[in-house]
Amino acid sequence: MRRKPQQLRSREMVDRLIDATGKVIVARGLEYATTNHIAEEAGVNIASLYHYFGNKEEMIEALQDRLTQDLLQTLVGHAAGYDLKALSMRDIAETSILFTLQSLRADPVFMELSRHWSRLSLQRSMAVIEQHLLQLCTDYFRQHFRTYPIEDMHIRLYVLLNGAMATVARHLCEGSPVIRDRELVTVLADMIVGVLEKGMIE
Amino acid sequence: MRRKPQQLRSREMVDRLIDATGKVIVARGLEYATTNHIAEEAGVNIASLYHYFGNKEEMIEALQDRLTQDLLQTLVGHAAGYDLKALSMRDIAETSILFTLQSLRADPVFMELSRHWSRLSLQRSMAVIEQHLLQLCTDYFRQHFRTYPIEDMHIRLYVLLNGAMATVARHLCEGSPVIRDRELVTVLADMIVGVLEKGMIE
């Protein structure tokens, strides 16, 4: 197959601009970052930037999409390392949530975006993450149906994924000075295990 | 005390403009409603409209705020009618969630806004509702501490309110053709009762 230098070059340019968007908002703050700053950081002229993006908002959206993809990859990689036979449902829930909290807190780009979450639309990212986790969880429970014989799994996973994601997002973005990560994780694990156990066929 | 006709008139005008915003978006759809349509519906000239609102987005925000207040009043009124001694925690949870779903579905303004939820910021409305429900629930559990001796109530309520609100909002806005209200309510009640019971001091 022949390579397509034009497409490859476009993609590299877009990647470089998204990298630069992340760096600039961390350095200057989301509200003070401009497309000029981003173009300068990327070493790209401003006309080229506007060839790929209509405005700053589109660049932030692309950055959110990339963060979502990165988080998913990290989570799936982390989950692949579990010894599922050795772990209880509670262990899996606690480990995954704690790992998610720590990964996101360690990412300065996410932390800067999270400062402005009330003005950003999170629904698209949430929908992408939900769809992937839903697939992951559905596969898991199909494989372990004998241990977890749950009939209405699709409803239980819908509630648990929406519920847990919203709480984690809220906790990371707005925070709550009186709630610690460890406490939140325990209650979320209670929620996940409780809802699943309640659905088991007797 | 002397009345303040100027202030009163302003408030009536703002109310009339918010009413008109609701009517126009239901009749024309959010994307096709203009401030001119709204001014015409309210019987107000466009300059007066711009005296109170900067643009259409501000009118939609004011409409969201009013919907939030209306929903809260309706919920609190509904809850006041409960015979709390005769109801289990599960009954209260199921009744409240089902009532919320039905109230919102019956409101054409909410349903039109919900079609566009991925572009509207819901965080402000959510925060207001959460704060009120948190107060309501905290008072309830303080009064019933003997029946429900839960130490880390603030964490459990934080998780449950965030989790339930997000799932209800998602279900109402995006819907899921395979999940029925009744099924969702059952699983949400499992979640609420399970998380509370797990927190009981033994």
TrEMBL record, chains A, B:
Residues 34-53 bind DNA. Pfam families: TetR_N. Gene3D superfamilies: Tetracycline Repressor, domain 2. The keyword Iron does not apply. It comes from the Bacteria. Residues 11-71 form the HTH tetR-type domain. The keyword Transcription applies. One of its GO terms (molecular function) is DNA-binding transcription factor activity. Keywords: DNA-binding, Transcription, Transcription regulation. This is TetR family transcriptional regulator. It comes from Fluviicoccus keumensis.
